[in-house]
Amino acid sequence: MISKNQIKNITRLQQKKYRQQEGLFIAEGVKVINEFLNSTFKLVDLFTTKTFNVENETLITEAELKKISALKTPNTALAVFKIPKLSLIESKGLIVALDALRDPGNLGTIIRLCDWFGVKQLLCSKETVDCFNPKVVQATMGSLTRVNVFYIDLNHYLEETKQTVFGAFMDGENVYASNLPTEGILVLGNEANGISQSIEKHVNQRISIPRFGDLQATESLNVATAGAILLSEFRRSN
Amino acid sequence: MISKNQIKNITRLQQKKYRQQEGLFIAEGVKVINEFLNSTFKLVDLFTTKTFNVENETLITEAELKKISALKTPNTALAVFKIPKLSLIESKGLIVALDALRDPGNLGTIIRLCDWFGVKQLLCSKETVDCFNPKVVQATMGSLTRVNVFYIDLNHYLEETKQTVFGAFMDGENVYASNLPTEGILVLGNEANGISQSIEKHVNQRISIPRFGDLQATESLNVATAGAILLSEFRRSN
Predict the structure, then answer these.
(1) What does pLDDT average to over chain B?
(2) Across the interface, do B211 and A116 touch by the CB < 8 Å criterion?
(3) Which SUPFAM superfamilies does the protein's record reference (chains A, B) (predicted)?
(4) Domain B94-236, CATH number (from 3.40.1280.10, 3.40.50.720, 3.40.605.10, 3.40.1050.10)
């Protein structure tokens, strides 16, 4: 059984304002929930149509699940977890930074890419979509448990950092011919506008993915696919 | 002015059945429509709130545009184009083949990637989402005008082809260490199930993208990001 009040409290976690106020977020589906349960994330409530054999579990009906789910097709269970307190950013290793990324699907894909390529720290400008947005949580497939996402004043951070800052630009150096280090910060820009002028000032090395099509070919790659190719290049060459 | 009958005929092109019956598809927004207008695609009707100075143009109001648009936020214009008659597949160069890809966004991203990397031919199994689906058309950003998409019996085609067939598998050879040719067919699989068993039989070279995270890391990459990395590898090494 789930009360009207609980339904209200859960569904409003679909909004960033309430997630920040409560320090909570929702995850859905057996696979995704299990990834969070097997991590350091703290479970607050689990509403499920089939038992997980955990504490804080409430068995509910499909109809009740539908009332609290953010998915078009709810999948077995919905869990409420605490948003973890992050430690400090360590300026070492390969770091990815996002400048005002807007699309939840793109952020989810980039978090999965970071996980695949062993990038432990993802820095997001404050304008970047929230990583605890339900769409992002579902798109990451649990990678959020292994990648630390920091929302910061990116401009200020890049101004102070001693690491080399890389950015993708059309006029950058051919990434296949570039000598890429094992450490550094790779900046990816906004879907429509790319890297903003204020962030561009802090870029030390401009890189670009060569185009192989004819002159009329597409003018840009999607930010997640460009990120995939660039991370692959950083890891391949080291 | 736009009639009720016209509205019905246009909106039903959002369904594959009617696109195939009529041999027509819709494209929206100034930028995307201009890419098709500047290609060999044949315009049938253009409904727009601002003139394009072309024949077959009907000026309409924002309210009318809303009635025919497939977008949440309609953008200036909607055009109806003829689905082109394709020539025969040429078994040369680098070709991408999709085995039952279901997500329109992924197909759109892969068509853009083909365009970027100079892949002129994209083979789709009959179960793959239709490339003239409005979501795919919008996601391709005009790349559909430069990449020929063929819907075929993929199993039969791969059985007959003399080109080398490459497929991505977890247990494949490290793609960074592989000797990749300039010609061949790269098969990408379904989002949930990967490459099907019947298609797998025709794969001559199994390749894989190494994972750099720890052992617990994400079990797979999104098909579009995996495709991005693999196409980048094919082009980089030649």
Answers:
(1) 94
(2) yes
(3) alpha/beta knot, L30e-like
(4) 3.40.1280.10
